[in-house]
Amino acid sequence: MGTTPDLAVSAEGLVKSYGATRALDHLDLAVPAGTVMGLLGPNGAGKTTAVEILATLRRADAGRAVVAGHDAAREPERVRERIGLTGQYAAVDEILTGRENLVMFARLSGLGAATARRRADDLLERFDLTAAAGRPAGRYSGGMRRRLDLAASLTLDPAVLFLDEPTTGLDPRSRNGVWRAVRDLVGAGTTVLLTTQYLEEADRLADRMAVIDSGRVIAEGTAEQLKSTVGGDRVDVVVEEAADLEPAAAVLARVCGTAPRTDPEERRVSAPVAAADRIAALTGVVRGLDAAGLRATDIGVRRPTLDDVFLGLTGRTGADREGAARPAAPAPAPAGQGAAA
Prior knowledge:
The chain is α/β, with parallel strands linked by helices and 341 residues long. It has 2 domains: 7-227, Rossmann fold (3-Layer(aba) Sandwich); 233-303, Alpha-Beta Plaits (2-Layer Sandwich). It contains 11 helices and 14 strands. It has helices at residues 47-54, 76-82, 98-108, 113-126, 142-153, 172-187, 199-205, 223-228, 245-256, 278-291, 306-314, and strands at 7-18, 21-32, 36-40, 62-67, 70-71, 83-86, 160-164, 191-196, 208-213, 216-221, 234-239, 261-263, 268-272, 296-302. The protein has a 6-stranded mixed β-sheet, sandwiched between helices. A 4-stranded antiparallel β-sheet has the order 2-1-4-5, with helices on one face. The two termini are 21 Å apart.
């Protein structure tokens, strides 16, 4: 596999097995420099294993990966000099203050004392943590700890930042704060590889997305391209009573001219509709429900979501739970420096 100058990350044929379980099955990936690539897929699909190999925390059994111009297996030290890594949980010392955490990461990354202090202050300001710099990290909110963790991963201004489910467990306000920080990083030229199960997160942040299932990429493109794989607009009706599902489906089938999809758990009926016909279809469905004496708690015309993409491509939604267990990765070294390969 040759290197391409405008690719910050490229992988070809990555294979990784844990006993009888194949976590990666000839996975290919290409991430243009200065963009956000989202890796999407159910738990156990291979997303984290891919990140661990690209970040030199694990070795692939086969295949090749090039990160920031360096071979991840043959030049792991050079790769670690160019990357940052933020895992699913904030890896900060809760006893140390925010400033002390960043100074520590900077010193462990090889910066001198004075340079480390200046770098810490720059990062505190960049992530809106200056006012809390003197407080122990254990007293930070979840969103503040995550921002501090992101700041630590940028100690050496990495060319590539790996974010493995960076907003897991955060409330919506904290999640928005992390999203703003990520957008600022990309605006400054950093390439981001993001794994996430929050479909809204991928929709908001990623320039392109790769859907992974059973260790390989099964679809790739922009959010709109992926959504187009499951069709266009749809009329969506949520009925008040479960018994109304079947007659509501009959109304949608008659008005939209196609067989609707029903979700008994959510009491939802959906049918695809052409964009040019959506207003007429919506009006017809409302009239049909009213004529049949059916009560709806929600009705509208909606664009496909990434959850629809998950369901269409994998037969599962993004919220499905993990299957086979995967061994824990080696503990990462300080930000900007991976663990020994």
